[in-house]
Amino acid sequence: MLRLAQRMSRAKPSAIMVIADKAKKLKAEGRDIVNFSIGVPNFLPGAHVYEAARKALDADTGQYGSNRGRDDLLDAFIAHLARAGLPGYQRENIAVGVGAKQVIYNLAEALLDEGDEIAFPTPYWTSYLDIAEIVGAKVKLLPCPSSQHYKLTPDQLDTAITPTTRVFLFNNPSNPTGMVYTREEIAALASVLVRKPDTWIITDDIYHRMVFDGLGYHNFVHSRPELRERTIFIDSLSKTYGMPGWRVGFMAGPVAVAKAVVTLNSNHITNIPEITTAAAVAAFSGPQDVTERQCADFALRRDRVVAALTAIPGVSCPRPQGAFYAFPDISSAFGRRHGSTRIDNDVDFCAALLDAKGVACVPGSAFGEPRALRISYTCPLPQLDAGLKRIAEFCGELT
């Protein structure tokens, strides 16, 4: 009998895209929809990026590129790392991919055998769990509720990471919560990780240029340089430069890990396109004003969102300090009704909110936290204000 591979029973479509697709469908049917669901930055890169792409198109040879990434792109990323306080990487430490998601998937294949343990905090980005399950890893979740501002504590980490934990995956700033770890918090976690020599560390820091309030970006390697020999840094063009559709991701880490990812690239993707490569080099090497301006704008939007959400009775929202997400706890609505619709969980809440008010949010259970929902606040300001007003109206109508 013909059948699919068993791993496909573990593969699930992105919960975020399911909501986004439903919102898109309703909008196409004529509904007035405010879409807070998909994590796109909603700005475009500078003109120099498009100019570089056009020049590359005119000079295109149609040939294959490098499995690791073209030298000028590797050098541009190395300079980018140095600006983030992570100098000293060489080309042999770097590998590229079709977005950060594909790099993380390659790392899962490179570092995890079936049954190996991977640990990461909850809430988590949806693809972490999906990728781990596809490759057959054993997942250990480290719950970080809103009462601890969605942040991992050193004691939790110390208890969770055992000699059988193959990989610890860490996201800072966080998707979905927007939380950012301080220098002191990173140092405390790093001190724990130093005592866990059998565990690889993956730091997914694709939002590290989107940090507010003067808090700054901090990495485990900043605090404890000895962790560099087993830490893999993940980055992407998507959020920093407004280029999610260009699909360019990176890793920097130990030579053996980078070599493994390059080998997998040779079997998966061969190379990222030359046109995209030229655009990426320009993004890293050219003016940074667009990114800086957007970070300031997101901080102002954050203030708007938090003020609106915390004004709703029963809703709590730890103050995000990075990325462009808010993650309010809406569990006070559970057991209540909106009209004839009973709301027993976050999925019910989001479904009723979309049906009644035309506001699309992602249920927190998609991120491992069923008491919350995620709001991506990058839409135009009139839509942002309208969506926040509709959420307040919806909550005010609950009985």
Fold blueprint:
Blueprint: H1 15-28, E1 34-35, H2 47-58, H3 71-83, E2 94-97, H4 99-111, E3 117-122, H5 126-134, E4 138-143, H6 154-160, E5 165-171, H7 183-194, E6 200-204, H8 220-223, E7 231-236, E8 249-252, H9 255-268, H10 274-285, H11 289-310, E9 325-326, E10 336-338, E11 341-343, H12 346-357, E12 359-360, E13 362-363, E14 373-376, H13 381-396
Helix pairs in contact: 2-10, 3-10, 4-5, 4-9, 6-7, 11-13
Write the CATH fold name of the largest domain: Aspartate Aminotransferase, domain 2
Question: How confident is the prediction overall: mean pLDDT?
Answer: 94
Count the E strands: 14
Radius of gyration: 21 Å
Molecular shape: globular
- The top level CATH class name of the largest domain: Alpha Beta
User: What summary fits the major beta sheet?
Assistant: 7 strands, mixed
Account of the protein in words:
- The structure is a single chain.
- This protein has 2 domains: 6-44 and 290-396, Aspartate Aminotransferase, domain 1 (Alpha-Beta Complex), CATH 3.90.1150; 47-285, Aspartate Aminotransferase, domain 2 (3-Layer(aba) Sandwich).
- Helices cover 40% and strands 14% of the residues.
- The chain has 13 helices and 14 strands.
- It has helices at 15-28, 47-58, 71-83, 99-111, 126-134, 154-160, 183-194, 220-223, 255-268, 274-285, 289-310, 346-357, 381-396; strands at 34-35, 94-97, 117-122, 138-143, 165-171, 200-204, 231-236, 249-252, 325-326, 336-338, 341-343, 359-360, 362-363, 373-376.
- The strands form 4 sheets. The chain has a 7-stranded mixed beta sheet, sandwiched between helices.
- The longest helix has 22 residues, at 289-310.
- The protein is globular and about 60 Å long.
- The relative contact order is 0.17.
